[in-house]
Amino acid sequence: MRIQRLSVSTFKFHSPHGKVVLVDPWLTNDPLWPRAERTPEKLKEIDVVAVTHAHFDHSSGIGEIVGQNEKAVVIAQYEYAMSLLQRGVKNVMMINFGGRIDAQGMKFSMVPAFHSNSEMRPNGQMEMTGVAGGYVIEFEDGRKVYCSGDTGLTADMKFVVGDYHKPLVSILPVTGQLCMEPEEAAYAANATGCKVVIPFHDFPRDISDAANPEAYREFLKRFPAQESYRKIERFMEIMKNEYPRIEAIYIPIGGSIEV
Fold first, then answer.
1. Residues 167 and 193: beta-carbon distance below 8 Å
2. Best label site of 111, 176, 188, 192, fewest CB within 10 Å?
3. What mean pLDDT is predicted for residues 63-68?
């Protein structure tokens, strides 16, 4: 199974049986998404889009993706799923906590997260849209990946995710302020019982590392975020020193690993 990272919070999974799953697409107005991965041909490859919550850096690309592939399944928490359906998005599958969806030979279980959830409406107003969640994705060969989405530390990471689902890989936010700090994320990784942990929610340190450097420069004027790499460094240090049994792997935007 190959795991690619396409943006701050976007991960693409190539399943053992050749299916493509995308979690939390920013894409629209995203200066970081690799150009080679945003072509119509690449978007048409996507079989399932799983959305943890409606914030722009996790969901704004849904329209572009389904515009290229109307057969793509979109999985979202109930209230946000209803919002997508009202805007004409097809093949939306509703889910809620404790539920599971079987799609394209894979199983998607929604697990709790602790985070806000809102979306920008066409009139410019922010509206609350259900609640944020995470997913445990079970691929065709039985291996499981926990995609937490943005979240704080919760007891569910041990009891629901770790003790019940037993993921091989946990993908966790580690950069603080809007989600877990490095110390909390490291604790969470251990609680999930995973063998591999992948940190996220950091932004490129160098503007030249962005797919669209000029657009990234403009983005940083509104959302200063470049110092987040220090939180990644701290997280990797904690994992090495305190939780050496877990392999911590950092994937830069545009990079990929095989697990």
1. yes
2. 176
3. 96
CA Rg, the chain, in Å?
17
Structural domains in the chain, sorted by start? 2-258 (3.60.15.10)
Compute φ and ψ for 162, nearest 5 degrees.
-70, -55
Place of tokens 């049986």: 17
Give the confidence band of 151 by pLDDT, cuts at 50, 70, 90.
very high
| C-beta neighbour count of 107 within 10 angstroms | 16
pTM of the model: 0.96
CA-closest candidate to residue 254, choices 200, 209, 201, 213: 209
pLDDT in tens, 9-26: 999 999 999 999 999 999
Give the integer Cα–Cα distance in Å for 116 and 101.
Answer: 23
